[in-house]
Predict the 3D structure of the following.
Amino acid sequence: MKIKSSTIDQHNEKHYVAHKRKFDFISSEIPQVETIIQKLMAFNVAIPSWALGTGGTRFARFSGGGEPGTLEEKMDDVGILHALNKSSGAISLHIPWDIPKDYNAIKQQASSLGIRFDAVNSNTFQDQPSQNLSYKFGSLQNVDKNIRKQAIDHNIEVIKHGIELGSKALTVWLSDGSCFPGQLNFRKAFQNTLESLQEIYAELPDDWKIFIEYKAYEPNFYSMTVGDWGQSLLYANKLGEKAYTLVDLGHHLPNANIEQIVALLLMEGKLAGFHFNDSKYGDDDLTVGSIKPYQLFLIFNELVDGMDARGLNHASDLGWMIDASHNVKDPLEDLLQSVEAIMLAYAHALMVDRKKLNEAQVANDVAMAQEILQNTFRTDIRAIVAEARLRLGGALDPIGYYRENNIRLGLIKERGSKTIATGL
Ligand SMILES: [Mn+2]
């Protein structure tokens, strides 16, 4: 299913007067509004191929209808999102769930939808039917050299798929670790993992990056071999300049100061980018900004400050991806909400008066520093994000459009009501 630009125009005409009133007001309040709009227009967030279907928990999965059953249908779904919000122009593929059968055909489809291929993701946290050896006791860390070799070869195969598609990064998330004290020799597990990663690193093309994702716990509940940003940074530093630390917002212990972690990784030139989601208790994979929008803003505040300090291009120098699971909502509506939350946090961060904030910091004016951040966060800038979308031909109200035009019903008619997408 393709969204017609003429129906978006009709939708926008209906909403334009109300939008213009809000936009004119907020523009008059923000002198740098044009700069902010230009940056928003350049910014895109990659949609993960595994999040287009209804996710499950370890208890159950309640699939919705019209879910994409093939990679082509997943691409079409990202195309729908991108047509509506003009900020979802990339897809992050998961191998082996989404191996392209025909590279050229899939690349053609991507270009017709205006989307590119972001980081490719390997999977050594499950056993696949075709595989000889089991990852039950870990992959790159495994005590068995043959199992390590199988996992290394898989990662190299993922790089090869990525090269064909024009990806520039490999994301490695390991479920490796241990569930009980004594199960694992920590130093040997680290060393095995490092050596395995070195073999994968050696196969990276010159213009590629490898992203090392960390996670505090789950599926292993005693130790994780890449358990936190310190361990990830150790691997990244030992591997070399093409290796970076990937921050997944849900992969921290409760109350971690993620904005501080991000600031330091960025300062060290070792921040790969993000897997965005939100959480209340653990790795909940909830909609971005649904639980802690202020934290998301504080993270973006550090990102903008740190990227500008290093002269980075906001849109292209870091990897921006969503990693979420939608158990009770329509995945496409959920993803529209997530991208919107990211754009709002980014826009707010661009709005912060950094000169004044710096003055408050050097004067130890704590109350003023807080005022500056909170005044920004409490300003309703939704019309600015909508304006950026409008100028690119997107919908003023993406979810409104999605519902008015019964997109899900159309997908169910096209694909059936019993389809189940591969993924989490
Ligand atoms: Mn992740």
